[in-house]
Amino acid sequence: MKMVSVIIPVYKVEKFLARCVESIFSQTYINIEIILVDDGSPDQCGQMCETFASRDNRVKVLHKLNGGLSSARNAGLDIAKGDYITFVDSDDFIHPQMIEWMVQQLEQSGADLVSSGLLRFRNERPEEAPVDCVHFTELGQEDFIEHLYPDNFGKISVTACGKLYRKQLFSGLRYPEGIIHEDLQIYLKILQKCKRISVADHELYYYYYNPNSIMQSNYLAYDRFGEFTVREQYISFFQTRGLQEQALRAANDYLTFFMRNYFAVMLRYPQRRTALEPHIKIFKGHITLIQTDPYVCRMRRICCRLMLIEPHFAYFIAKKCIPDCLIAEMREGECSEY
Fold first, then answer.
1. DSSP secondary structure letters along 173-223
2. pTM
3. Is residue 126 part of a domain?
4. Contact 253/184 with Cβ under 8 angstroms?
5. Which of 115, 235, 312, 314 is the most exposed place for a label (fewest CB within 10 A)?
6. Cα–Cα distance for residue pair 87/164, rounded to 1 Å
């Protein structure tokens, strides 16, 4: 029986950690090691990890200085002994048979990666679907790429979680540290190592929207601009394979991300303007593609040009008509500058 390493970064999740770890203890597949990476959490999480380790000898606890989510995942990868790898964020939890079904599929199909959809929830614990069995769709690399972007990735999420990987996929590959959206940064590299991928027809991973997560944290605390290059790479990646629809969807996704950061910097965080300037030049080179992109709505097309000339006026339009093009803190409040 192959061993699975379950890597769980832990930081300021006292309220949710037990729910997460108990869902791992409850897995029907028992040959697992549970790696709890205490990423310098200032609360009682470190002690909670030790308590879990005293209950189950499959638990390994690693205490380290705070380095962020990527750093914690990398630390787990460095000590993982399993043949297969899965990641679970410490405020989420998983279906009790997720690992068993994924291992079976990985071994029966010869896939390099098995992926499940994510069931997102905000407040109460969601009702777990009464899933007795799961069916998988097997995709070759090119088929997988073609299905990657429709409907914002559809059931195929780019997040690290909700997946089972063959360990060798991470040979010579680690998550970039000090940035957000770190999953997106290495996803194409992992994908290009895969010859076959299997996708589950049910959501087996339960994703909690945490308002205190990195994604919702202080805008200045993380490098927000490293993702520009990656999102541009997605556009080129699809274009070089003749997948024009996916390239257009990628361009729309890139536009949303750019607008969020442009408004944030120009109207609220002017100290980041110098860092943004080279990305503005690159963005201008994409405007022609964006203006003819059928996935870009009329108001986005108007705003993407107007914001370069009159950012305050464009912000007013975006706030009223396309609030998803603003970071969360700017969707309700007023700009600090005018």
1. --PPSSBS-HHHHHHHHHHHH-SEEEEEEEEEEEEE--TTSGGGS-GGGSB
2. 0.82
3. yes
4. no
5. 312
6. 8
Residue tagged 């203006």 (tokens): 291
Report if residue 335 sits inside a domain.
no
The DSSP code sequence of 251-300 is HHHHHHHHHHHHHHHHHT-GGGHHHHHHHHHHHHHHHHHHHT-TTS-HHH
Q: Within this chain, do residues 237 and 200 fall inside the same structural domain, yes or no?
A: no
- Shared domain for 189 and 271, answered yes or no, is no
Does 311 map to a domain?
yes
- DSSP conformational letter for 329: G
Q: Are residues 15 and 100 in the same domain?
A: yes
Query: What are the respective helix, strand and coil percentages of the chain, to the nearest 5?
Result: 50, 20, 35
CB 145 within 8 A of CB 191: yes
Q: How far is CA 209 from CA 118, 121, 254, in A?
A: 11, 6, 22
Same domain (yes/no): 141, 10: yes
Assign 211 a pLDDT band (cuts: 50, 70, 90).
low
Residue 337 lies in a domain: no
| Spatial distance between the Cα atoms of 42 and 14, rounded to a whole number of angstroms | 10
pLDDT tens profile 73-114: 999 999 999 999 999 999 999 999 999 999 999 999 999 999
CA distance 202 to 116: 7
Positive or negative torsion for Cα 108, 163, 174, 143: positive
Domain count, the chain: 2
Give the separation between CA 40 and CA 62, rounded to whole angstroms. Answer: 10
Quick one: 108 and 181 in the same domain?
Answer: yes
Can you tell me the distance from the alpha carbon of 91 to that of 9, in angstroms, rounded to the nearest whole number?
10
- Say yes or no: 265 and 126 in one domain: no
Q: What phi and psi, each to the nearest 5 degrees, are found at residue 319?
A: -65, -35
